[in-house]
Specification:
Length: about 400
C-alpha cells in the first residue's frame, strides 16, 4: 500500500533560499520539511560568514510579507545612493562617475544592506513560529528517489517523503548532481576578500563600487559607522594580500578605500571566496526543482546573487501554491515547467550581464578604460537611463510574482 507523503514540500538545504521558500509555501497552506546539513547555531555564528547582502526593494517587500523583517529591527541599513567609479590604485578615481539617488524613483531606499548572519537569525525565528514547517538540522540527505513521491533517505536512516522536492543546497548541490543535471560555467581567476571596516565619519547610506584593474572594490554601508569591504583581486594577488599581517593589510586597504570617511581600519576576521560563474542546464525534473545557488551562481559585481535566489523563491512558491489550489499534482513536470520558463531567462541574462561587466571593468587596457569611463559619465547625465537601471536593480520591473509585489502568495 502506498502511504501519503509526510509533507507537501521537501526542501534540501535550509539556507538563504531554502528557508524563505519554506515560509512562502507554508503561507500558501502547504506543509514543508526542510533538511539542512548545517547546524543552525553554526550558520549564525559571527565567524561563519562575514558577508552582507544587498537586499533589493522587491526582495525587502517579500521578506516583510513573509514575516522576516520583524526580526531584523536595528540590522537593516538603507541604501540611499550608489556611486560607481573607475580608477587605479594610488592614482585615485576617474573624473567620470555614475550616481544613483533613490529620491529619483520614490521615497523608499534602493534596498537594504543586511549581514548574512542576521538574515539567517531572522529566518530561523520566522520558521520556528510557523507550524507547517518542520526543520531537520543538522541532518544530511544521503539519497533521493523519485516516483509517485519524492523520498529522501537521511543520514540517520529516516526517510522523508513529499509531493515535490526543491534543491536549495548550494552551488555544489548534491540533489542536482544526483538528478544528473549538468552545469556550465567558468572560473574568473579572481577571489573576493571580505572584511568589516570601521570609519570615523558616517557613510550616509552611500554604497561605493570602485572598479580597479584587479576587480571591483565595493564599500557597502552597514549599521553604524561601519562598512563591509568586498575586495576583488586576481587570485594570486588575493593570496598575497590575505597573507599580510594586520598592519600591512590595513595599509593596502586604505590605499584603495581613500579618506572620504575619515580615519578607517579593518576589524575582525577576513574571509575569502573564489569567484566563478555556474548555470544549471535545466532547473527541473519530475518532482524536483532547483532554486538559488543550486540553479545559478554569478559574479558578485552588483550584489544580485541573493536577489536572484529570492526571485526564484517567489516564482516557485506561486507556481506550486496555485497548482495546489487547483488540485493539480505540484510535482508534475508540466506544473514545474512554468517555474522554469519564468526564471531561467532572467537568471541567465543577468548572469551574463554581470560576466560582461566584470570583463569590461577588470582590466587596464587604455582604450577600454576610456570607453567605459565615458559610458559611466553619459549614463549619469541621462535621467531616464539612470532611473531604468535603478528600477532594474530594485527588482521592481518585469513579470513579478505576488510576493515581490508585497502581496501574499
Amino acid at each position: 500500500m502506498t502511504h501519503g507523503p509526510d509533507s507537501d514540500i521537501l526542501i534540501a538545504g535550509g539556507g538563504l533560499s531554502g528557508l524563505p521558500l519554506a515560509l512562502a509555501c507554508a503561507q500558501g497552506g502547504l506543509s514543508v520539511t526542510v533538511v539542512d546539513a548545517l547546524d543552525p547555531a553554526t550558520a549564525t555564528d559571527a565567524k561563519f560568514d562575514g558577508r552582507v547582502s544587498a537586499i533589493a526593494l522587491a526582495s525587502c517587500r517579500m521578506l516583510e510579507q513573509l514575516g522576516v523583517t520583524q526580526h531584523l529591527e536595528g540590522q537593516m541599513q538603507p541604501i540611499n545612493d550608489i556611486m560607481v567609479t573607475d580608477g587605479r590604485v594610488r592614482e585615485g578615481a576617474s573624473p567620470f562617475f555614475l550616481h544613483f539617488d533613490h529620491r529619483e524613483i520614490g521615497n523608499e531606499p534602493l534596498g537594504n544592506l543586511i549581514e548574512n548572519r542576521h538574515i539567517r537569525i531572522a529566518l530561523q525565528k520566522a520558521v520556528a513560529a510557523e507550524p507547517l514547517i518542520r526543520l531537520l538540522a543538522p541532518q544530511s540527505v544521503t539519497r533521493l528517489d523519485y516516483g509517485a513521491q519524492a523520498v529522501a533517505t537521511l543520514g540517520n536512516g529516516e526517510t522523508v517523503s513529499a509531493r515535490l522536492c526543491f534543491a536549495a543546497d548550494g552551488r555544489n548541490s548534491p540533489a542536482r548532481e544526483a538528478a544528473g543535471i549538468k552545469t556550465i560555467g567558468w572560473d574568473y581567476g579572481q577571489t573576493g576578500i571580505v572584511s568589516t571596516v570601521e570609519h570615523e565619519l558616517p557613510h550616509e547610506g552611500v554604497a561605493q563600487e570602485y572598479f580597479l584593474p584587479g576587480g571591483p572594490f565595493a564599500i557597502l554601508p552597514m549599521v553604524g559607522n561601519r562598512s563591509s569591504l568586498v575586495w576583488t583581486e586576481k587570485t594570486e594577488d588575493a593570496k598575497a594580500i590575505l597573507a599580510l599581517d594586520d598592519a600591512a593589510f590595513a595599509d593596502e586597504m586604505r590605499a584603495r578605500f581613500g579618506d572620504y570617511l575619515g580615519a578607517c581600519a579593518p576589524v575582525g576576521p577576513r574571509w575569502s571566496y573564489p569567484l566563478t560563474l555556474q548555470l544549471a542546464r535545466d532547473y527541473i525534473r519530475p518532482r524536483l526543482a532547483l532554486i538559488g545557488d543550486a540553479a545559478h551562481g554569478i559574479h558578485p559585481i552588483a550584489g544580485q546573487g541573493l536577489n536572484l535566489g529570492l526571485r526564484d523563491v517567489a516564482a516557485a512558491a506561486e507556481v506550486v501554491v496555485d497548482a495546489a489550489r487547483l488540485g493539480l499534482d505540484i510535482g508534475a513536470l508540466d506544473v514545474l515547467e512554468r517555474y522554469q520558463r519564468w526564471r531561467r531567462f532572467d537568471n541567465v541574462a543577468l548572469s551574463l550581464l554581470m560576466d560582461g561587466l566584470n570583463r569590461l571593468f577588470s582590466n587596464d587596457i587604455g582604450p577600454v578604460r576610456l570607453a567605459r569611463d565615458l559610458g559611466l559619465g553619459v549614463v549619469s547625465r541621462i535621467g531616464p537611463a539612470r532611473r531604468f537601471f535603478m528600477r532594474h536593480a530594485g527588482g521592481v520591473v518585469g513579470d513579478l510574482p505576488r510576493l515581490l509585489r508585497g502581496e501574499a502568495v
